[in-house]
């Protein structure tokens, strides 16, 4: 399997991903790697309907995505991996999937998260995963759209702190 592009965007397939990033990826298939999404049949159906014309979409749990990646049947397949969080990216990398660069484009604000850019909010678990990905030498490309200037994610993460519960 040839990884043409990998992105974290918790909205997954939406207008910008379907029109801009899918073209940049130049892949035959989008694989959404998420246990959460793979177990949500309504969300899966909606995401498949939002796929760019001519592009196949698969939605699978992270461990299954790793197995598919390693299956020689798909060795010539070009893919665009989509994730909802950095923890899932780290799980795949630790299982031998050679993701060299990850574009971070959208992680919505929720309770317990801190906003680091207009489009990206993180919690302590996200920070830990990004730190590990950075230590593994993976390029962390924080940009919402292709024409944006990349933002130094690690610098942004150092600007925030989370209270650690020692109980």
Q: Figure out the total of helices.
A: 7
Bin the strand percentage.
15-25%
Overall pLDDT metric: 93
**What sequence of helices (H) and strands (E) makes up the elements?**
EHEHHEHEHEEEHEH
Q: Looking at the chains present, what oligomeric state does this protein adopt? A: single chain
Are there runs of 5+ residues with pLDDT below 50, and where?
Answer: none
User: Looking at the structure, what is the overall shape?
Assistant: globular
CA radius of gyration is 16 Å
* End-to-end C-alpha gap: 44 Å
Biggest sheet layout:
6 strands, parallel
Helix content: 25-40%
> How do the strands of the widest beta sheet line up side by side?
3-2-4-1-5-8
Structural class: alpha/beta
- Number of DSSP-assigned strands: 8
Question: How would you explain this protein's 3D organization?
Answer:
This protein has 167 residues and is an alpha/beta fold. It contains 7 helices and 8 strands. A 6-stranded parallel sheet has the order 3-2-4-1-5-8, sandwiched between helices. Helix 5 (86-94) runs parallel beside helix 6. The longest helix has 12 residues, at 124-135. It is globular and about 45 Å long. The chain starts with a strand and ends in a 9-residue tail after the last helix.
């Amino acid at each position: 399997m040839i990884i043409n592009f990998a992105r974290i965007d918790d909205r997954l397939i939406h207008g910008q991903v379907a029109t801009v990033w899918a073209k940049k990826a130049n892949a035959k298939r989008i694989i959404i790697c998420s246990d959460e999404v793979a177990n949500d049949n309504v969300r899966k159906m909606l995401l498949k309907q939002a796929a760019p014309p001519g592009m196949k979409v698969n939605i699978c749990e992270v461990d299954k995505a790793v197995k598919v990646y390693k299956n020689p049947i798909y060795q010539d397949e070009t893919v665009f991996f989509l994730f909802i969080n950095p923890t899932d990216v780290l799980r795949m990398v630790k299982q031998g999937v050679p993701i060299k660069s990850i574009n971070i484009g959208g992680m919505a604000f929720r309770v317990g998260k801190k906003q680091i850019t207009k489009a990206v909010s993180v919690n302590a678990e996200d920070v830990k995963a990004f730190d590990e990905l950075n230590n593994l030498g993976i390029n962390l490309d924080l940009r919402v759209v292709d024409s944006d200037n990349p933002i130094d994610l690690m610098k942004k993460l150092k600007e925030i702190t989370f209270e650690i519960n020692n109980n």
